[in-house]
Amino acid sequence: MTGARSFVVDDREKGIFLLDREALVSEDVLRGEMKNIFAKCWIYVGHGSELKRNGDFHTRKVAGRPVIFARDGKGQVRCHFNTCRHRGALVCTERKGNTRRFNCVYHGWIYNNDGSMARVPGDEAYTAAFDQSTFGLKAPARFEQYRDFWFMNLDADAQPLVEYLGEATDYIDLVVDQSPSNTMEVIAGTQEYDVNANWKLMVENSVDDYHLPSTHSTWLNFMANSGVKVEAPKDPSLVLPTHGLAIDLGNGHFTTDNINFRGRPVAAWIPIYGEDAKPEMDAIRQELVERVGADRAKRICDTNRNLVIFPNLVINDGSSVTIRTFFPDGANKMHVTAWALGPVEESESMRARRLDAFLTFYGPGGFATPDDVEALELVQQGLANYTDDRWSEMSRGMGREAAQLNSDEHHLRTFWRHWDKMMAGGSSGEQA
Amino acid sequence: MSAATMANVSVTRAEVEDFLYHEAMLLDDWRLKEWEELLADDATYYIPANDDLDGDFKSSLYIISDDRERIRQRIIRVLDPNCHAEFPRSRLCRLITNVRITGVEGDIVKVAANFSCYRYRRYQREFVYVGKYEYQLRKRGNSFKIKERRVLLAAHELGQLGSVSFVL
Fold first, then answer.
1. Which residues of chain B have a CB within 8 Å of the CB of A205?
2. Which domain holds residue A387?
3. B160 and A194: CB-CB below 8 Å?
4. Is CB count within 10 Å lower at the N or C end of chain A?
């Protein structure tokens, strides 16, 4: 804890919450994040459905680390560091594929798909001190899953993933329960794009419903043009057409929890889906009612939520379901990866509607995300004045006695309080 | 008469090039209402994900997968000053080359072309979108209507290109 300082002014009594903008621009802060956050927290790697067959693999960067996300010959899901034990080269250069072996092109060291050492060429040149069997690919200290969402942790002493996720599991369950067999799958087609902004601005933006009317008026127009009711509500405390909450889930996780108005593939029809979708969507809802009961079916279909798993995983269960993760490349830039998620047994017609609904809002060509990207980049450019205009004002909703709304900044404060504590050397979660 | 049973129309590369260059000028100059007049009533506009260029829009997550009505809505959106990603509007300049007629089926002319599209925003990085256009053009008199317009990006990921917030 020595030498740590706080980046927030947090006075709950007076209702003041200010963020020191240095947190969003400083390379020193980023170095602190690598050590205190990304090396301590559970970081999302991938979804088990991306590895359908034994031997399937994807290479990707997770928290800046090149890894191989793979299903080995026995069906076990694994995460290897994509780094040769010999001299450090990447051992797999393909984006994805199916293989029994990973071959380093430099000196030809070969690894099995479970990470173990297969062969060192010319091994007669080594002394007895060289034990080939100890030269398997290294792996993150911990690698665990919850409902096929796989996370790695570089900290061997971290609490188990399920404890870390805590109350957030309820919201993951609301997504997974959309499948009759409780099996969701990542759909082909990955959206990968950079945003020239600090990664924490994407955390804020993913759950901040205050910005919707101003940033996304063209999307609201599109919804209205397509027959969706988007009138401003009578209740002056609401900025969205329906009521929604912001909920602190502990350990830095949080979510919005909104009454749906925007349509959902499971299973809230809006005119964009077309008349011919109605019978099938009715049947999806009916199946859900029979399987989980009327109350939970209504909970799944008629509410939507944007969930943040601290620090950098977002599951948006809104117009469609998207998994989005992002990682800093310098203090002023991030790489974003986004996937669509759907029930494995979804019909071809419903899958097509899900993907169409996704693109109404999300992604680099969607009707909303490009304006989010723009807003985040405008913030980053404006922050160049941070030494003389130091504080971001984030107290919205602090005086509200009732539950915090999605358009308040309670959930953003939840993030920043946890981030601030971890930057000062705090633990990634409450010990159970 | 369906395209399959109709006699193939005659078409020259020069005609196709004239059409593509005209279209490029309208898009670069943000004359999107005039561009819309080039579209057939069943026009589609696709940009598949960089990592699944051969994927079908019904089973693969695209960047853009617009039917005719969605294109109409997209034009409304990007011309609106509240489309923040394009206000002030980017300056665009696209170069189209390697134009080839790849097939003719009835009145449908299939065309492939390479492009590089430069996009500039004030004080920002230069955006260069490079790839291949694949068109299905329906011959109408001396010109064409666009039935399908498919953009295949060469980059492995969008990366520094960020968004596709304009008509690429």
1. none
2. 165-423
3. yes
4. N
